[in-house]
Amino acid sequence: MVIMCGLFFMVVGALGLLRLPDLYTRAHASGKCDTLGEGLMLVGFMLYEGATLISLKLLLLVIFIFISSPTAVHALVNVAYNRGVRPWQKGDERR
């Protein structure tokens, strides 16, 4: 069940990446949903595997993803903002 919840968040993140209008909203959707989706899927794999060394490795991977993914998304959005990419506003054309 946890793996299916993770898959749901991954699909929602992909839909957000396709449907949202600009870089900032797309980065927000994909950053949040992918991090949570990957984390839930890996926790599901840990539950499936049981208390083994593989579960410990998966836990370390979850911790790494929860630290690195939001940091990478923040860095990308920060560079885009500093380069002058304007956020989408109501009435603007989708980019």
Please give a structural write-up:
With 95 residues, the protein is mainly α. It has one domain. It has three helices and no strands.
Helix count from the secondary structure assignment: 3
Low-confidence spans: pLDDT under 50, at least 5 residues? none
SSE run: HHH
Which oligomeric state applies?
single chain
Largest sheet: none
Assign an overall shape.
elongated
Distance between the termini: 37 Å
* CA radius of gyration: 16 Å
**What share of the residues does DSSP label as strand, in percent?**
under 5%
Compute the number of structural domains.
Answer: 1
Give the helix proportion (percent range). Answer: over 70%
**Structural class estimated from helices and strands:** mainly alpha
Mean pLDDT across every amino acid position: 91
Give the number of DSSP strands: 0
